[in-house]
Amino acid sequence: MQRILFVCLGNICRSPLAEGIARERIAACCLDVTVASCGTAGWHAGEGADPRMVAAARAAGHDLSAHRARQLRACDYDDFDWLLAMDHDNLAELRKLASSPAQLAHTALFLEWTGIAPPTAFPDPWYGGEADFAAVVGLAERGVAGLIQRLQK
Ligand code: 4NP
Question: Known catalytic residues?
């Protein structure tokens, strides 16, 4: 079984979105993969996903209502096969906190790992408006499609 952890800053917008869509697609494809998400920061720990993110996801048919935010833990490096960062800051933080070359080798940038883009950050909609939230749903869907392709190989 493969275990994948999506990592953003607050764990209330981008990584819960990627996790939610990935969980749906993995179930639909009957893949033996588990997914989770967390934030490098703990400011929103215990909270649900941002209501704007929940609404934009729901409009596209994705349910994020069960999400609860949590912060990255040291054991995540052992508990997951891949730690996929949504942007370069998240990746830098993951790499800073890794305690061995092996742990470092299992961190990557989400859109790059999924093969849909060169090293590109997944934009943070938190500071934006409704259109920004809607736009990242489509991007997450494309990223997850790439992730499923990679996992099926
Ligand atoms: P996320 O977005 O990292 O995609 O969950 C953010 C959530 C919260 C904050 C920033 C980004 N914040 O500054 O609280």
Answer: 8, 14, 124
In ligand 1, which atom is closest to the CA atom of 9?
Answer: 3
Show pLDDT as tens, one digit a residue, over the chain (153 residues): 999 999 999 999 999 999 999 999 999 999 999 999 999 999 999 999 999 999 999 999 999 999 999 999 999 999 999 999 999 999 999 999 999 999 999 999 999 999 988 889 999 999 999 999 999 999 999 999 999 999 998
- In terms of phi and psi (left: phi > 0; alpha: psi -120 to 50; beta: otherwise), the region of 11 is left
pTM, two decimals, is 0.98
Separation of CA 29 and ligand 1 centre (Å): 30
Pairwise CA distance, residues 11 & 47, whole Å: 9
